[in-house]
Amino acid sequence: MLDVDDYLRLLPKTELHCHLVSTMTAGMLVAQAEKHGVPLRTTDPARLFDYRDLQDFLVAFEAAHQVLRTPEELAQVAYDGVRIAAEDGALRYREYFVNPQSFAEVGLGYRPLMEGVIEGLSRAQADFGIGFGIVVAIRKDVTPAQAVELVRLVGDTPLPEVVGIGADYLTAEGTEDPARFADAYRLAKRLGLKTTIHAGETPNASPDDVRAALDVLGVDRIDHGYRVVDDPQLLARVVDEQIPFDCTPISTTICSGWRLDPQHRIARMIEAGVNVNISTDDALFFRTDLGREYREGLVALGVDAPTARRLALNGIDAAFCSDDEKAALRARFAGELLTLDAMLA
Ligand SMILES: [Zn+2]
Prior knowledge:
alpha/beta; TIM Barrel; 5-stranded parallel sheet; 15 helices; binds zinc ion
């Protein structure tokens, strides 16, 4: 027999909202920083991941890019990250945000960057059976023209593992402003890439940021999107259209200072029937892992086991992989769930 905690730990899962550098462990981060002479705010693991707010976190997140400089280092981090997530959270498929504009600042070009990441993730797929896709992320603090330039680079460098375009960080003015990147997203769609964007997350954001992502950019998914519950009309629409939302419970306690309880915006989204799936966002920086998001995050939100099971399956439908890969994932999940469901006390 399994109790709910064991059931949620063993539940097969996807993760669609995961930043590659955040799959490093604290030990790797400190070792890599020493190797490349990158100063960290502190090497005290107890304080290394304390942030005042989202902006403060983004500074630390940016520094993590500077400790990874070669394709070999990227491959190793990517590989180890999969191994750890398979152990901690029964991960079966994951999509990664990679920010080429941050790696370019330390001299790592797009193709060697991607080849390193793909090499590590492919090796992990062969060893652990965990599939993946890569979503190239635009940093919102670049200009609209630089965003277009990045998407053009993705188009000029065909790699089947790169399945989509996203956007993270905040604009130079500290806003989300999805509409700023309309040209980049138009080009991404023309190139046949899937699209998603961080929107409706931050304290300054509003439901209009989610609306702009849907109406101006026409994205396939929304990352975070929590402000949607502040606008009943928009909420009804995203339920009706079953727009997937990639939500990350534990990160909200740090970036927004929210308490994980049944009044939390993610709990209200799930209650309203929004198509939610669950991820870590930045496991390293928020001291979380995929298992913890379900076992602690969802439980604190008041989500029961059958609902958690449904959210895990939502991740397959919302993934940017091929229909064949989705069918294989569904079959694998169904097999595992048959055993798990029977064992749940
Ligand atoms: Zn994110």
